[in-house]
Amino acid sequence: MAMARSDQPTFEIHRLGRTFGAEIRGLQLARDVDDEVFAALHQAFLDHQLLIFRDQELPPAAQVAFARRFGEVQVHVMNQYHDGDFPELFTLTNLDADGRPNGRHPDRGTLHWHTDGSWSKVTGHSTMLYVEIAPDEGGGTGWADMYAAHDALDAAERAELGGLRAVHDLNYSRTRRHGEEPMTEEQRRQKPPVDHPILRTHPETGRKCIFLGDHASHILGQPVEAGRARVEALNAAIVDCDNIFHHRWAAGDLAVWDNRCLLHKADGYDTATQRRRIRRCTVLGEVPA
Length: 289
Description:
Order of helices and strands: EEEHEHEEEEHHEHHEEEEHEEEE
CATH superfamily: Clavaminate synthase-like
Strand content: 25-35%
CATH architecture: 4-Layer Sandwich
């Protein structure tokens, strides 16, 4: 356990996973985050990559305001997930208008390891996920450490991957995972495929990490099928069980994580009997280098 500050108010940092992750205790984010507290939180974010806050009273306006402390907040191109007065918020739920489970998963792409916003030239910096309603069983989230995945590469693998770029394509991942609700022509026009280095340098820590995930379609400059097979093999290899942390949600939980060095995925749940409603926002980062 570490204390973030010597004066009041303080917060506590409790480590969670083997290589990353921390629970922050002693703060209500809607009221307790002045500039000094935020500076300490930001350092904890860089140190631990994933921060979890429990028992938060965080209405939509407060969630967006907290996200803006980190940078510009993405307005997601998939505008069918926007909800309410804040287009920055991306709502995922299996509930119908009467609050009953409808049996449909809102986005099955979330069930596969990915990083938010990799399908844009300017990729995701961080994601903030707030749970309004948590299922009694299932529906948690797992994260995988891409610093550790990089460090596990041998010299030959680093040399090979260091010269490769992967194509990231939201339409590709959406179609294969949730094809019954495809992107519209206008959404595809707004977000064409982009390419990023497979190995990137974190712009704030200087550490190397692997940057792939389910939005990666194939390797630039290689035949598509061969490049796709290589991406699939890499995605399977980099998710090492020793470097994964899973969290089971409770209502009022907020997680903030670094999209530049973590992959994440949702765990399945029974959408016909369990209730789940979350709101998510993603802060924009930079062009990977």
